[in-house]
Amino acid sequence: MENLVIQTEKLSEWVNEVIKKNKVFAPVKETDFSNFKIIDDYSEIDFTYLLPRVPAKKILFKQTETLFLFTPGSKGSVQTKEISDEKLVVFSLRTCDAKTFSILDPVFLGDYADPFYKSRRERSILIGLSCNKPNVNCFCTSFGDSPASSDYVDILLTDLDGKHLVEVVTERGKKFIDNYKKFFTSASKEDLDSKKKVEEQAIKGITRTMKLEGIPEKLDKMFEHPIWYENAMKCIGCGTCTFVCPTCHCFDMQDESTLREGARVRVWDYCMNPEYTHHASGHNPRPARMNRVRNRIFHKFNYYPINDNIVGCTGCGRCIDYCSVNIDVIDIINKIGEAES
Amino acid sequence: MVDKELLVKTAKKIVSREDVKYVVGYKQGTYGFVISPSFAYTPEDVDNFIYNPLCKKNLTVYPILEEKLPLRREEEEDKRKIGIVVKGCDSRALVQIIQEKGLTREDLVIIGIPCKGVIDLKKIEKRFPNQTEAVNVVETDNAEYILNISGAVQHIPKEELLSEVCKSCEYPNPTIYDFLIGEKIEVGEVPEYSGLKNLDETPLEDRWAYWEKHFQNCIRCYACREACPLCYCKTCMADMLEPQWIRRSVNLSENTAWNIMRAFHLAGRCISCGECESVCPVNIPLMELNKKLEKDVKEMFKYNAGLDTKEKTLFGTFNTEEPEEFIM
Fold first, then answer.
1. Average pLDDT over residues A163-175
2. Cβ–Cβ of A243/B65 closer than 8 Å?
3. What is the ipTM of this complex?
4. Which of A127, B18, B89, B311 has its CA 20 to 30 A from that of B166?
5. Is B321 a domain residue?
6. B324: in domain
7. Nearest to A64 among B32, B69, B250 (CB)
């Protein structure tokens, strides 16, 4: 739509200007990693880590969401939860985290729109930042994406050493950037060429590949394959892979109350937990770890592509990075590709 | 260095036995420094077994983790034994579980490995990022690790990569085993665990701020619980709904409740393998809590967990000499 340039030393001024009128989320250094947090000043942003530990899904789809409040008892009442109209900016999103929302949209904006997600989605500006040095388990390129892709953001920044290229991608991004015109100049052809070089370099840094061709269809015939048992034997059943996944979106709803007040909350749930499918009758349709490990892979690489025409994985590699027993989704999918069905 | 041939030979012998279901050991992972648990059902499966200083995972979580599905009519329960590779700390977990009657000695065939300490994966990955190819690590006799990374041989002082818990390990030798691979290690003077200052020494406000900072990052994935061989309650208090001891809401208050209750439930039971801390995706220093409780238990009750299957558990014993100043 429009290509601009901002001098890197002006970046802080611009972001601080944005903070005045918006709630800005950006990666902030925690103990020895970074996480998305609301920032009050540009200096809080941590650019040293490629990916924040918990993905950006937590900004639009919160881990704990209060749906409404209530007063328990015979004279009880329900108080609806006001939805804020604050403007949100997610700053420094990587391709894999930005793509999250195209995958979550069919869920939360599909047949029944979730008012909380919908509202946040509508009032947020996604500002991406191209990766210049991918991690060991990055594989966004396996999905035809690029570490410097502008496909899923409103505005994309690329560090060109001394200045940042600012690609304004959407109408919403254009309206937003027009408020801050004084910080930007037009981009030259050289700037766009430099971005290409940064992008090529980053793509070279991605060493692992997931071979996806024909996988969704092949999985249909592999429901009983031994690979599920192999991986399930070592799975310890924790929620790490699902909680650090940018696309896992299952939730549980609970009433949390005292004698005087209560709230219905929605919290992230994880399909690796036996309780996840435990029916009130006592029956559990996914009784064994094998059923659960298989379901996670099927959901992303079979159900999702078949139902919504998009693979439910963005290639961020977090589930591989933080699995303590080396359940490696790239390895599983590639083995499925090679296996006889 | 552990004799791999002897390990493989022993595991093959065990897995060939009719009364053994499988042997669980270690194999090379799918990238870089990562090691994977390996389940061997046949002697051929054992061929991929390895052992090196990267084999940190405590495998004793597996015998209890195995799910026993309801039996079909006329189907009989598979009561065969499980073979398992253990280091010093891991073996103590088995002893503790046997004391608590979670497993019986007859359930297991134990391959013990005297352990000189294992590498902290987070430290080595930070030192050598973006390592796709598998890397073998060898420990020398003069406290060095030798790594061959993309053709370049690296000598790294052991101290720099060693897991923190291993630095204060008192029991490198398995306390229970059927087969021992290698010579027992002599234990000299063991330095006290260095992470206790955040619970013992610093002023209350600083201590609280330190733990608040960590607990607010907790995402309640319960990896600490699932990875712990001694967290094996059939229903965890964190999963109970009536009464709901800990709410599902993820916030500082509930996260603190979870992390503190987890630590207390391991008082006198934790065997310091450090598994909870190494699996935590948000790097909460859980071993600092565990070590503080271990120290208190040691000082007050002269008790060390997981040494002898004949011994009773700390909470299974009582004597009149015990301090009781904390009882109101």
1. 96
2. no
3. 0.93
4. B311
5. no
6. no
7. B250
